[in-house]
Design goal:
single chain, about 80% helix, about 240 residues, mainly alpha, rod-shaped
Length: about 240
């Protein structure tokens, strides 16, 4: 009996500490993901400005090398196909059987998916915290009320002073669970919206890059043209 009472007395505090831990994780993810998205936005703006000011495909490729950000990574994946670096020298004969435009499109989409997985890291944890915290808190409340009722049954005292204290203490767990879940859900929804926006921007850039490569016949050396363009004669996309 004493062992059961000891275990029972540890349930509600254990639930509360677990919820506090979840709250700390939520705010830590908010800080980390906020910095990640802000840094990525700044890096992409800088890269795109330099990239579309380039005067040739070679200069654009040089700009994309070793630069951070999702856009630069997509550009590097695209240039790897345009220059033929995506195929090992031993497989060059097989590569000739695959249309380069198809390889480029596939490579760009694969890189977008890799960048998306990087950006959405940690969001599943937020979703889990937001969906499970109220139930964990409710579990602590139910267990605390059960403990209070067992105590009443053993002592035979059912006065308001005897009942209100233990039950009120048990209800704290539900309140804490809701308090932890609400920020987690809000943060999850916010970063999910930011993720969708970033994926949309990456899709737009990949489409522009594909059009640019199409203008140069999917070769590292662009064909000469007299057509006027918006950005510059070499890297603008019609």
């Amino acid at each position: 009996m004493l062992e059961n009472n000891a275990i029972t007395a540890m349930i509600v505090p254990g639930v509360l500490w677990a919820l506090i831990f979840f709250s700390v994780v939520t705010w830590a993810i908010l800080l980390i993901k906020g910095l990640q998205f802000a840094r990525n936005r700044t890096e992409n703006k800088r890269f795109q400005k330099l990239f579309w000011e380039a005067k040739s495909m070679e200069e654009g490729e040089s700009i994309s090398e070793n630069r951070p950000g999702t856009m630069a990574s997509i550009a590097r994946a695209g240039f790897a196909v345009v220059t033929g670096r995506d195929i090992a020298p031993t497989n060059q004969e097989l590569a000739q059987k695959i249309n380069r435009s198809d390889r480029l499109e596939r490579s760009l989409r694969q890189q977008i998916q890799r960048e998306r997985r990087s950006l959405e890291g940690g969001l599943a944890i937020l979703a889990s915290i937001g969906s499970t915290s109220p139930f964990i808190g409710l579990f602590g409340t139910v267990w605390g009320i059960m403990e209070a009722l067992m105590t009443i049954g053993e002592t035979g005292e059912a006065g308001l002073d005897t009942v209100a204290g233990p039950i009120g203490h048990a209800l704290i767990a539900t309140g804490v669970g809701i308090a932890v879940a609400v920020p987690a859900v809000l943060v999850y929804n916010y970063f999910t919206r930011r993720l969708k926006l970033n994926v949309s921007l990456m899709d737009d850039f990949a489409h522009d890059f594909y059009s640019l490569a199409q203008q140069s016949a999917f070769q590292s050396q662009p064909q000469k043209t007299t057509t006027s363009t918006t950005h510059n004669p070499s890297l603008a996309v019609s």
